[in-house]
Each structure stands twice: as C-alpha cells, then as structure tokens.
Write a structure and sequence with these properties.
alpha/beta; about 180 residues; Rossmann fold; 6 strands
C-alpha cells in the first residue's frame, strides 16, 4: 500500500517548482496569469511490475496523484508502457476516466521507458502550461542510458520529470532520471 504522505510530498514539490518558475519569469519580465498545469502519468506495466503487487502500488499512487492534481486544476493524461508505450487517456480533468483506465492496466512485456518518455514529451511539447511527466515505476528499464537521455530532452524543453517509485525501486536510477523522486 502506498505511503499516505506521498501525495502531499508530490504536491509540495510541484508547488515549489511552480513558485520557482514564476519567480524566474517575473525576474525576466514575463507576466503569467494563473498558468494551466499539465501532467502525464506514465505507468510501468512491464513484467517486473507483476511481482509483490507492484502494479497495484503504481495504480494506487497514480490515482492518489490524479485526485490531488485535479483539485489543483491540472489536466492529466495517462500513458502505459511495457515493450511499447501507448496513450491510454489524452489530457482530461475527469477523474472517473483516469480511474477507469488505471484499473484496466495489466502486466506484460519488457520495460521500454525511453519510448514512454518520448511519447510524453510529444504530448506536452507544444503546450505553454507548466508541464510534468510523472513516472510510476520500479525503475528497471530496458536501457537506463537511453531513458536518461530522453529525460534530459524533457528537462531541456522545460518539462519537469518526477518519479513515484515502488517499494523496491532503483532509487539511484530514478534520481538520475528525474528532477524529483518520491518514494511509495
């Protein structure tokens, strides 16, 4: 079962990032009024997530994040990945759609995190809102090097990458991948 403090920690970190961005933009003379925020939940459905109820941990963490983020005015999309990545839910503000889709996720395949990050960037790239990729995983991708390169591309495009790790997640890898790591 996910740590009940995970959502407040993610929420606090997102608020810190939003504040820092607003301060930087203000210093640069750019005015932003009530920016929209977008988050893509990227859920690992690979074979390793079938061990020790990790997929259920991921679903619970994603659901908790979605509930909190939607109350803060976010739009949220859902991408699942294993051997390949797929957009399951385009950006929405409807929790019922996200919950229904999360419950249908199943285990299978390898862990193509790189493709999932690239797909997430594609979903967020042309948007002017605050943008986040929230990766829910055990941190065991097919290729760590290409996943880190993909995450750096997101960072360079101004997209924040946050990981919600399962109980046994590779925290060292997740720190290299993200701007924030939150433990389950």
């Amino acid at each position: 079962m996910p740590d009940k403090q995970i959502i407040p920690r993610i929420s606090d970190r997102l608020k810190q990032l939003q504040k820092a961005l607003s301060e930087d933009l203000e210093k640069a003379g750019v005015e932003i009024k009530s920016p929209e925020a977008l988050a893509v939940l990227v859920v690992d459905c690979s074979g390793s997530m079938g061990e020790r109820d990790k997929l259920q941990q991921a679903k619970d963490g994603a659901t908790n994040f979605a509930q909190q983020a939607l109350t803060m005015g976010y739009s949220i999309g859902l991408i699942e990945f294993e051997s390949s990545a797929r957009v399951i839910v385009p950006m929405t503000s409807k929790l019922s759609i996200l919950n229904s889709s999360l419950e249908k996720l199943t285990i299978g395949g390898s862990t193509n995190l790189t493709e999932a990050i690239h797909l997430s960037i594609g979903e967020l790239k042309s948007k002017t809102a605050l943008r986040y990729i929230i990766i829910v995983t055990d941190g065991m991708p097919d290729n760590q090097i290409t996943a880190i390169r993909a995450a750096k591309m997101a960072h360079e495009d101004g997209i924040q990458v946050i990981a919600i790790g399962t109980d046994d997640a590779d925290r060292s890898f997740l720190r290299k991948l993200t701007t924030s790591v939150v433990s389950q």
